[in-house]
Structure formats: C-alpha cells, structure tokens
Amino acid sequence: MKILKHKFVENIPDIIEDNVLYVSMEYETVIHKCACGCKNEVVTPLSPSDWSLTFNGETISLEPSIGSWSLECKSHYWITNNKVRWSHKYSIDEIEKVREVDLDDKLKYYDKSNTPSQHNSAGELEKQHSAQKKFNLLDWLKQAFKVK
C-alpha cells in the first residue's frame, strides 16, 4: 500500500515531489503527483462542490475519490489517512456517468448559491458579487462540459 506524506504550504511549490500531498489552505487546493507513478500532477480544489479534506492531527484524507479521467493513466483511488487505496479501473461509460453526476452536483450547488437576496446591506452586496463570480464559473463549466 502506497503511503503519502503531507506538507501544509502557503503556495504550491514549483517542483512537486513524488508521494507528497501539498495542502494550501490559503488557496483551498491540494496537489500531488498521480499515485500510479505516471508523474502527472493531480490538483484537487477544496470546496463544497469539489473535494473535502480531513486532517486528524497526523494524517490527511480527501473525499471523494480521485479519478484522473483526463490523464492517460485514468487512475482512480482514494486517499485515506495518507494511504492510497485503489479502486477498479473505470470504463469510458462509467467515467462519463461520473462526470455527468459531478457536473450536475456542481450546477445544483452554484444554482443554489445564486438565489437572489432581498437585502441590500454591504454584506449582502458582497455576497451578490461573490455569487456573480460563481455564476461566471458556472457558465465556464457549462461551456467546458458542453451543457446548455
């Protein structure tokens, strides 16, 4: 079983070491080299619609699983308590279904985040501005995944 180390960093380093999870809380991102050994970098953004990170004081866990569908290796694994647990290799149909569910979840999350507010306080205006940024991301996601 492959065991990864973790490093909490402010900025992601230029050189990503093998078997190291780099965690930037400031940028809400975890990056590592693919666990299969192909040397590709895998970026897991931390957000309610992407990955969540658990740090128990000693080890890191990421959820959901890491599916490197866009990489040639198509690796699929879980990182739990710094250990890599392999999943079965997904077929093209399974990958497409997972992508559809992921996109649907993301669209629902951002749609829920964009509900109009009745208040016009400075705090509410900031929330609306933030929601507009999310809406722009939503448009980008729809375009990237060719969803209308």
Spatial sequence of strands, sheet with the most strands: 1-2-3-4
What is the overall number of helices?
Answer: 2
Helix/strand order: EEEEEEEEHH
Structure class: alpha+beta
Poorly predicted regions = 117-121, 131-135
Estimate the helix proportion, in percent: 25-40%
Mean pLDDT: 84
Instruction: Write down the domain tally.
Output: 2
Task: Tell me the radius of gyration.
Answer: 17 Å
Fraction of residues in β-strands: 25-35%
Structural account:
With 148 residues, the chain is of the alpha+beta class. Helices cover 30% and strands 27% of the residues. The protein has 2 domains: 5-86, no CATH class; 92-144. It has helices spanning 92-113, 122-144, and strands at 5-8, 20-24, 29-33, 41-45, 52-55, 60-67, 76-80, 83-86. The strands form 2 sheets. Strands 1-2-3-4 form a 4-stranded mixed beta sheet, with no helix packed on it. Residues 117-121 and 131-135 have low confidence and may be disordered.
Write the layout of secondary structure elements.
Blueprint lengths: L4 E4 L11 E5 L4 E5 L7 E5 L6 E4 L4 E8 L8 E5 L2 E4 L5 H22 L8 H23 L4
Parallel strand pairs: 1-2
Antiparallel strand pairs: 2-3, 3-4, 5-6, 6-7, 7-8
Helix pairs in contact: 1-2
